[in-house]
Structures are given as structure tokens and as C-alpha cells.
């Protein structure tokens, strides 16, 4: 599904990643671990295709769809979006209006992540965990072949974390690849393979 070959990355001359190799098959999970600043978010951006490597290559299966949950999302708080609108954005495409399937998928995911009762609240009026569940719902309503998730459950309570992990497992069983960055050993343990950036 996705192959990184000798990937390197520099921010204005400063090397952050060097010689990263990985291969993620369909229906598997990769956890990316390592200390603050070791380059996990940078690598996830390269894998999702929002940044280009300075060296080496990232190749994804032709036609594969990527859904990205970034770590830093504070920009969205300035928008006057409700929780429901924020989740619906995950189903938007430029070419058509949202239909019944889209509305059903949004409603189901909001129920599963326990944010349905917050539908009309603004993002900036939420607790950290409620906000994170909203952004996760926006990512998980997307029909993707590769889900790239940067510290997806960082602010979540134990129950929410389990619910989110169940959704990941379902997507993997359905054939998607899940790539997540995490500082939580228990979360990394759900993955089929782990890339420890500090050690690479
Ligand atoms: N836009 C940027 N410009 C310059 N340097 C950056 C930029 N973004 C990140 N860096 C630097 O690149 C390195 C890797 O950052 P990155 O955000 O990928 O780390 P991380 O492993 O995700 O850390 P954390 O665990 O804190 O999320 C850090 O040293 C950081 O200071
Ligand atoms: Mg990070």
C-alpha cells in the first residue's frame, strides 16, 4: 500500500529525517514512536503526501486515498464551525452535495465517538478530549485506503480510546492501512509493526 525508500527531510537546511525505509501493506497497522522532536509528525506528513521528501521517495498504491489527522490543528478553532459541520467536512468532495449515505456515516461516527450530543456546539467550546474526538470523527468518516493519524488518542479517556481503537481495527479488517504516531506503548502495541525513529 505504501513504501518509503531512503527518505530524508530537512527544514531549511536542518536534517530531521535520514534514511527512513518502511513498507506498509494493506490491512496492517504501523506505529511510529520516538521522543519529542525526533520527526514523527514530519514523517507522517511525508507519508500522507502533504510534504515532499528532500531525499528518497514515498510511493503509495495507485489511486489510494489518504485521510490525515494532523497533530497540530489549532487553526480550525478560529472558524465558526459546529461539531456536526466539522465532522461533515470529512465527507465533502468538490463535485457533489452530501447525500443520505454521507449523512448516515456522519451520524453513526458521531454516535460511536460520543459527540452526537455536542452536534451544535462550536469547536472552541469543547473540552480537549471532545475536540479531539470531533477531529477523529472527521478523519474516520472518510473512505480512505490509508489513515495517517498523528497521536490520535492523546487527550482521550480510556473508554474513548478503546472506541477509537475498535474503529481502527475495523478499518484494518476492511483492508485499509493505518499509520499512527504515538507516545503510548499500549497504543503502539496494537500495531503489526513499529518504527522507532529514535533508533533509526
Ligand atoms: N516547520 C518547521 N520548521 C523548522 N523546523 C521544524 C518545523 N516543524 C518541525 N521542526 C523541527 O523538526 C523536528 C521534528 O519535528 P516533528 O514535529 O516531526 O517531531 P515529532 O517527533 O512529531 O515530535 P512530538 O513528539 O513533539 O510531536 C523538531 O526538531 C522540530 O523542532
Ligand atoms: Mg509530532
Describe the structure.
- The chain is α/β, with parallel strands linked by helices.
- The protein has a single domain (about 1-200), classed as P-loop containing nucleotide triphosphate hydrolases (Rossmann fold, 3-Layer(aba) Sandwich), CATH 3.40.50.
- Helices cover about 30% and strands about 25% of the residues.
- It has 6 helices and 8 strands; from the N terminus they run E-E-E-H-E-E-H-H-H-E-H-E-H-E.
- The chain has helices at about 40-50, 85-90, 100-110, 130-140, 160-175, 185-190; strands at about 1-10, 15-25, 30-35, 55-60, 65-70, 145-150, 175-180, 195.
- The strands form 2 sheets. It has a 5-stranded parallel β-sheet with strand order 5-6-7-3-8, sandwiched between helices. It has a 3-stranded antiparallel β-sheet with strand order 2-1-4, covered by helices on one side.
- Strand 1 (about 1-10) and strand 2 form a beta hairpin.
- The longest helix has 16 residues, at about 160-175.
- The radius of gyration is 17 Å and the shape is globular.
- The mean pLDDT is about 95.
- Bound molecules: adenosine-5'-triphosphate and magnesium ion.
- Magnesium ion (MG) binds near residues 71, 150 and 181.
Give a summary of the structure in a few sentences.
The chain has 200 residues and is α/β, with parallel strands linked by helices. The chain has helices spanning 40-48, 83-88, 100-112, 128-140, 158-173, 185-188, and strands at 2-11, 14-24, 29-33, 55-60, 66-69, 146-150, 177-181, 193-196.
Amino acid at each position: 500500500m505504501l513504501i518509503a525508500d531512503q527518505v530524508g527531510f530537512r527544514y531549511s537546511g536542518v536534517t530531521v529525517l535520514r534514511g527512513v525505509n518502511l513498507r506498509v501493506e494493506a490491512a496492517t497497522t504501523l506505529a511510529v514512536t520516538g521522543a519529542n522532536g525526533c520527526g514523527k509528525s514530519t514523517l507522517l506528513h511525508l507519508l500522507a503526501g502533504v510534504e515532499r521528501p528532500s531525499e528518497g521517495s514515498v510511493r503509495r498504491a495507485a489511486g489510494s486515498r489518504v485521510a490525515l489527522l494532523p497533530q497540530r490543528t489549532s487553526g480550525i478553532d478560529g472558524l465558526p464551525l459546529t461539531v456536526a459541520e466539522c465532522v461533515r467536512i470529512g465527507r465533502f468532495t468538490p463535485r457533489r452535495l452530501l447525500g443520505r449515505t454521507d449523512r448516515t456515516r456522519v451520524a453513526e461516527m458521531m454516535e460511536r465517538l460520543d459527540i452526537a450530543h455536542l452536534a451544535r456546539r462550536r469547536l472552541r467550546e469543547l473540552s480537549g478530549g471532545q475536540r479531539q474526538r470531533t477531529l477523529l470523527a472527521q478523519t474516520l468518516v472518510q473512505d480512505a485506503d490509508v489513515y495517517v493519524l498523528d497521536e490520535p488518542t492523546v487527550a482521550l479517556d480510556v473508554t474513548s480510546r478503546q472506541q477509537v481503537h475498535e474503529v481502527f481495527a475495523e478499518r484494518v479488517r476492511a483492508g485499509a492501512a493505518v499509520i499512527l504516531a504515538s507516545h503510548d506503548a499500549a497504543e503502539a502495541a496494537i500495531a503489526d509493526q513499529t518504527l522507532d525513529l529514535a533508533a533509526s
